[in-house]
C-alpha cells in the first residue's frame, strides 16, 4: 500500500498550508483509522516545523481533550499555552496546566519534580495583560491542534465543543487542526458529529500511512539505534502481520530493545515480535504445553475452561490442516469455516442441551472472532514457534506477559 504521510507533510509544511494567511480561520480535520499514528505523525513530523510561528509572534498550541471537564478548562489551557509558545517565560505552567487544571483552584501551590508552582501566579495570569497578549498571538495566524477526542469527557457536549472551535476560528482568525479517529463517536454523538463537522470543518485530510512509513517514523527515534542491524527484519515480520498500528510497533521495538540490552539470543526476535503484537492486541501470550499429538496454547485453554470444546477443537485440530502460510484466509472466511465446523458437530449431537450449547458457542465466536482469527494466523500461518528452542520460546512469552526481563545470556 502506498502511504500518504510524506505527501501530507509536504502539503502542510513544505507547500505552506499551515503558514499561509489565506487559510486563517480554517478548521482542518486530520482523521484516520485508530492506531495509525496520527498523533505520532503530528508530534514528530509536523510540530517540529512549527517553531517558525513563534518567530512571527504567532502562537502554536497543542491540547489534549483528556481530563478536561468543561469548556472553560479548554479555553484556559489554550491561553496559557498560547502565551508560553511565544514568550517562553515559564514552561512548567503550560506543561502542568492540562494535568492539574481541575485541582489547582483548591491548592495555594504545588511542588512538581522539584519545582514549586505558585498557583496564584497561574490564576493571576488570567487577570493580567498576559491573557490579552495570548489572544493577540492567536489572532490572525495562530494555530491550535486539538487531540484525544476519543477521551473527551461526557460532561462536554459535542455541540458546545465544536461551537468553541467555530468561534475561535471565526473570531480569532486562527487555524484549528482536529486530530481524531474515523469512527471516534458512536450512537447519538455520531449523529451530532456528522451534522456539526459539515458546518465546522473547512478542510478534510485523511492520514493513511503505509506500514513502511509508520514503522520508519517510529524506528528513527534515537533510542532504537541499537536495533539498526535488525531494522529490516523486524519490519518484514510486522508486514507479515499486516498490522497498521503505531502502539503495536512501539511495543515491539521496546521489547526487542530490552531483549537485546539484556543480552538474550537475537534468534528469538522474530518470536518476540509476534508474541508482543498478539499480547498487545488480546492480552494472551502464545505459550503452550505439550499434549499427545497437539500443542495446547493459552488461548485454547481459555476456551476449554469455559466449556467451548468445539472452538478449542477447531483451533487445535482443524485449523492447522486448513490454513497454510502460502494461502492465508480473511477474517470472514475463517469465521465462516469455524461456524460450519461448530454447526456440523452440534447437528450430530442429539442431546437435549445441544441447541442451547450451540447458541452459546456461536455467541462466543462472535464475541472473540478477532482473537480466534489472530490466533490461527500467528500460531499456524506465521508459525512463530518454529526453529526456536522451547525454553527460549517460553522465556519470550514469560517476558511479554510479566514485563520483567532479568540479565540474560551474555
Structure report:
This protein is of the alpha/beta class and 410 residues long. It is 54% helix and 10% strand. It has 19 helices and nine strands. The protein has helices at residues 5-14, 38-46, 51-55, 71-87, 91-97, 119-125, 129-138, 158-172, 187-200, 211-219, 231-241, 246-261, 269-282, 298-305, 309-322, 331-347, 354-367, 369-381, 390-402, and strands at 27-32, 60-64, 109-112, 115-118, 143-147, 175-181, 203-206, 288-291, 294-297. A hairpin with a 2-residue loop joins strand 8 (288-291) and strand 9 (294-297). Helix 11 packs across helix 13 (269-282) and helix 12 (246-261) crosses helix 13 (269-282). The longest helix is centred in the first third of the chain and has 17 residues, at 71-87.
Order of helices and strands: HEHHEHHEEHHEHEHEHHHHEEHHHHHH
Distance between the termini: 40 Å
**DSSP strand count:** 9
Strand content: 5-15%
The major sheet is characterized as: 5 strands, parallel
Shape: globular
Low-pLDDT stretches are 102-119
In what order do the strands lie side by side in the largest sheet?
Answer: 2-5-6-1-7
Question: What is the average per-residue confidence, as pLDDT, rounded to a whole number?
Answer: 83
Count of helical stretches:
19
Radius of gyration: 26 Å
Please identify the oligomeric state.
Answer: single chain
Helix/strand-derived category reads: alpha/beta
Percent of residues in helices: 40-55%
Amino acid at each position: 500500500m502506498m502511504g500518504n504521510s510524506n505527501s501530507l507533510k509536504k502539503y502542510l509544511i513544505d507547500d505552506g498550508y499551515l503558514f499561509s494567511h489565506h487559510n486563517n480561520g480554517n478548521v482542518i480535520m486530520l482523521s484516520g483509522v485508530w492506531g495509525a499514528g496520527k498523533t505520532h505523525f503530528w508530534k514528530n513530523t509536523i510540530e517540529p516545523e512549527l517553531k517558525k510561528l513563534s518567530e512571527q509572534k504567532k502562537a502554536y498550541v497543542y491540547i489534549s481533550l483528556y481530563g478536561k471537564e468543561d469548556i472553560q478548562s479548554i479555553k484556559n489551557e489554550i491561553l496559557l499555552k498560547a502565551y508560553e509558545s511565544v514568550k517562553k517565560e515559564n514552561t512548567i505552567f503550560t506543561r502542568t496546566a492540562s494535568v492539574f487544571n481541575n485541582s489547582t483552584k483548591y491548592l495555594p501551590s504545588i511542588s512538581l519534580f522539584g519545582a514549586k508552582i505558585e498557583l496564584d501566579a497561574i490564576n493571576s495570569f488570567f487577570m493580567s495583560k498576559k491573557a490579552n497578549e495570548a489572544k493577540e498571538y492567536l489572532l490572525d495566524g495562530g494555530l491550535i491542534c486539538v487531540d484525544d477526542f476519543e477521551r473527551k469527557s461526557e460532561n462536554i457536549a459535542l455541540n458546545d465543543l465544536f461551537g468553541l472551535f467555530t468561534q475561535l476560528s471565526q473570531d480569532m482568525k486562527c487555524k484549528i487542526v482536529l486530530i481524531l479517529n474515523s469512527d471516534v463517536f458512536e450512537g447519538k454523538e455520531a449523529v451530532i458529529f456528522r451534522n456539526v463537522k459539515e458546518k465546522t470543518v473547512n478542510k478534510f485530510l485523511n492520514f493513511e500511512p503505509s506500514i513502511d512509513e509508520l514503522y520508519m517514523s517510529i524506528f528513527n527515534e534515537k533510542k532504537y539505534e541499537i536495533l539498526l542491524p535488525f531494522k529490516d527484519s523486524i519490519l518484514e515480520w510486522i508486514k507479515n502481520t499486516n498490522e497498521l498500528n503505531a502502539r503495536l510497533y512501539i511495543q515491539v521495538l521496546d521489547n526487542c530493545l530490552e531483549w537485546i540490552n539484556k543480552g538474550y539470543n537475537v534468534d528469538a526476535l522474530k518470536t518476540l515480535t509476534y508474541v508482543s503484537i498478539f499480547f498487545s492486541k488480546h492480552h494472551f501470550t502464545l505459550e503452550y504445553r505439550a499434549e499427545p499429538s497437539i500443542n495446547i496454547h493459552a488461548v485454547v485453554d481459555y476456551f476449554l475452561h469455559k466449556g467451548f470444546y468445539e472452538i478449542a477443537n477447531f483451533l487445535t485440530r482443524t485449523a492447522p490442516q486448513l490454513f497454510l502460510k502460502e494461502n492465508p484466509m480473511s477474517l470472514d472466511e475463517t469465521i465462516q469455516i469455524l461456524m460450519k465446523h461448530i454447526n456440523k458437530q452440534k447437528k450430530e449431537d442429539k442431546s437435549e442441551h445441544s441447541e442451547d450449547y450451540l447458541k452459546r458457542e456461536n455467541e462466543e465466536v462472535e464475541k472473540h472472532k478477532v482473537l480466534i482469527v489472530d490466533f490461527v494466523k500467528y500460531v499456524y500461518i506465521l508459525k512463530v514457534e518454529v526453529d526456536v528452542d522451547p525454553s527460549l520460546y517460553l522465556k519470550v512469552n514469560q517476558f511479554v506477559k510479566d514485563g520483567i526481563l532479568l540479565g540474560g545470556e551474555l
